[in-house]
Here is the input.
Amino acid sequence: MADLLADFSAPFPGLAWQTALARLICAIVLGGLVGWEREVHDKPAGMRTHMLIALASCLFTLLAFDLIAIETSRDDALRVDPLRLIEAVTAGVAFLAAGSILTRQGSVQGLTTGAGMWMAGALGLACGLGRIVLALIAVGLALVVLWLLRRVYPHQD
Here is the structure.
């Protein structure tokens, strides 16, 4: 029973649960900002979708840290490549984003929403890695691109 309780008190080896929670919340908030912009303009994937993508990406990152911290008895028992995490999250989010892209009579719609979903995944990865300042800079730039360029090119999306 003590081992079970210990697992809940330190869910991520080497990372306090408060830190993990802060990173997860940061991912939700930053993903929500991109999603809010999409939702305000009545686009297919809104705030909840972007928040969940960022949250899932952050969680996958934290879980990868957990896997890295597992001690094995053999050196080759666990092969760790952090780039695989980024590839897996990118592929999963790209699959979701592709579903938001529609073509009708030679016109393509949903590319910006798909790109926003991809951005939400990247924000989640950055938050999970503890790169909060980088994530803040990226979300700021993304919002500038979405808001400013909407005014410059109002008919493109």
